[in-house]
Structures are given as structure tokens and as C-alpha cells.
Write a structure and sequence with these properties.
By secondary structure, this protein is α/β, with parallel strands linked by helices. The protein has 2 domains: 8-20 and 91-222, 3-Layer(aba) Sandwich (Rossmann fold); 21-88, Orthogonal Bundle (DNA polymerase, domain 1). Helices cover 45% and strands 10% of the residues. The protein contains 10 helices and 6 strands, in the order E-H-H-H-H-H-E-H-E-H-E-H-E-H-E-H. The chain has helices at 21-34, 41-45, 52-63, 69-86, 96-105, 118-128, 151-160, 174-183, 197-202, 212-217; strands spanning 8-11, 110-113, 137-138, 167-171, 186-190, 207-209. Helix 1 crosses helix 4 (69-86). The longest helix is centred in the middle third of the chain and has 18 residues, at 69-86.
């Protein structure tokens, strides 16, 4: 009797495994203020998770201020510096460590794919206890386009050596779900990044859970079996 192939799990990082969304929001606000660009915090929050370049375009459009290449580079560096000053306070989300430990014990492949660059992702990966020699981590530095383009998840599946059609993307933002759909992967949404169930489902999530702990409690319902 043939057995079905094992699934693999591709995780976003910020708001999915670590509680860092609002640190990113405040860091972007600080960076924008340094360039004289004033935007409401809620507008910044709605863009967390998309690629930095696309985020610059959207924020420029919403603020009415043109951001040239030099300004975009200054903003990126200012955001990274402001975020890294806050990174010591960032903690894994409830159940995150337990979830990835369970996947390791079950020998189910998993990887991380984040729109952040390694300069900001590195410290929080350490807090999560990720062993970079064992767990593939794909960052913005390694692909041409980030979310909502599918490149990050396609690269992560390739690093695991599994077809993207076998992958389940776990993310907290609509940008994760849109990228999962474009990659032809299943999408699971988490509420831990501030998006609603309706928003995540409209973007393509077939299941939505509160946080990693809630996902782990129902892992057998999404293909996770020992």
C-alpha cells in the first residue's frame, strides 16, 4: 500500500514564530520620522511582512513624499538600527519552540522564509533557538523579490528538496497568504500578527489559528503526524 508523502512546513518569522511585529512598526516609524515622513502607526502595520522595496513604494504613495534610492537606503538602515535596538526584548510566540521541536521529533521538514534581511532576522533567530546549520533560513538578501511574490517560499522548499506543492506556508500576514497562493502551496494563517481571520482567509488561508501553540494543538488536522 502506498503512503502519502509527508508535508513540509514553511514558516514566516515576524509575527509567526516571534512576537516582533510591533517592534518592526515602531522601528519603521522612527526611520520615517528621521526622513521627515509622518505616517500613522496603523498604516505602517498594514505593510509589515511585504518586501522592503514594495513597502517603500506604498509608504511613499500614502505619504505623498517621493523616496529616491538614496532615501530608501537611509530608511532601510535606520529601520534596521532602530529594530536591532529593540530586538533584545523580542520573545518567541507561545508554542513556537515547542512547535518546531515537535516537527523535528516527527522528522517533518521545515524552513523559515522571511522578508527581513539577515541583519534584523539574526538576533531573533537566536532567541528562537534556530540552528542555522540544520534549519534552512531564506531571507530577503537571497531572492530577487520578497512577499507577496512567491520567491522566498519557492527557495525555502528548494532548500528542503521538496516540491512546493507539498508545502504548507504558515504566516501571520495577508502577504504570506498571497505569496503561498502564487507559489501553489497551502496557506495557514496565524492571528498573532494582527490580521483578522477574514483577512487571512480572503488572502488564501485554508485554516487560521491563534498562534503557534494553537497550531501545535491541532497539528494533526493539517497533515502533521509522527
Amino acid at each position: 500500500m502506498k503512503t502519502s508523502p509527508q508535508p513540509c512546513f514553511l514558516f514566516d518569522l515576524d509575527g509567526t514564530l516571534v512576537d516582533s511585529v510591533y517592534e518592526h512598526v515602531l522601528a519603521w516609524q522612527e526611520a520615517l520620522d528621521s526622513e521627515g515622513i509622518q505616517l500613522s502607526v496603523w498604516r505602517i502595520h498594514r505593510r509589515i511582512g511585504m518586501s522592503g522595496g514594495l513597502m517603500m513604494n506604498v509608504l511613499a504613495r500614502e505619504s505623498g513624499i517621493r523616496i529616491d534610492d538614496a532615501g530608501a537606503d537611509r530608511l532601510r538602515r535606520a529601520h534596521a538600527a532602530a529594530y536591532n535596538r529593540r530586538s533584545a526584548a523580542i520573545r518567541p510566540l507561545p508554542g513556537a519552540r515547542e512547535l518546531v521541536a515537535w516537527l523535528d521529533e516527527a522528522r517533518l521538514p521545515w524552513a523559515i522564509a522571511t522578508s527581513g534581511r539577515m541583519e534584523t532576522a539574526g538576533p531573533v533567530l537566536e532567541s528562537l533557538g534556530v540552528d542555522l546549520s540544520r534549519t534552512p533560513v531564506v531571507t530577503r538578501d537571497q531572492v530577487k523579490y520578497a512577499k507577496p511574490d512567491p520567491d522566498l517560499f519557492l527557495a525555502a522548499a528548494d532548500r528542503l528538496g521538496v516540491p512546493i506543492e507539498r508545502a504548507t506556508v504558515v504566516g501571520d500576514a495577508v502577504w504570506d497568504m498571497l505569496a503561498a497562493t502564487r507559489a501553489r502551496a497551502l496557506g495557514i494563517g496565524l492571528l498573532s500578527g494582527g490580521y483578522s481571520t477574514d483577512e487571512l482567509e480572503r488572502a488564501g488561508a485554508y485554516r487560521v489559528f491563534d498562534d503557534p501553540a494553537d497550531l501545535l494543538e491541532h497539528i494533526d488536522e493539517v497533515g502533521g503526524r509522527r
